[in-house]
Amino acid sequence: QVQLVESGGGMVQPGGSLRLSCAASGFTFSRYGMSWVRQAPGKGPVQIISINTGGVTTYTADSVKGRFTISRDNRKNTLYLQMDSLKPEDTAQYYCAKGGAWPAEAWGQGTLVTVSS
Fold first, then answer.
1. Is the CB of residue 77 less than 8 Å from the CB of residue 24?
2. Which of 36, 43, 75, 104 is buried most deeply by CB count within 10 Å?
3. Which of 84, 79, 41, 80 is nearest to 65 (CA)?
4. Which tens digits make up the pLDDT trace of 59-117?
């Protein structure tokens, strides 16, 4: 079955960087667009960035534009999210999702990112 396992979350100071990873299995990763979705405390999930099968970014939310970069390695079945210039409002649970749109076909358990001084 589809498995998406996120890693790389943690606590970081404002202005810092983190790189999230998502290991995918149970489907042909290279044939699907992928997305990152986040859910801040007390709020619903929001799609923030997506990538197509060829590695081209297809969607970027205004809230992360210029700061977050999505990439993928189809040989390793892994999705990445490079987050720079982090802000306290980026604090959220981050999910890797199968597909280029939300709601997604499947998503992982998430990894927590906390931005605080």
1. yes
2. 36
3. 84
4. 999 999 999 999 999 999 999 999 999 999 999 999 999 998 888 889 999 999 999 99
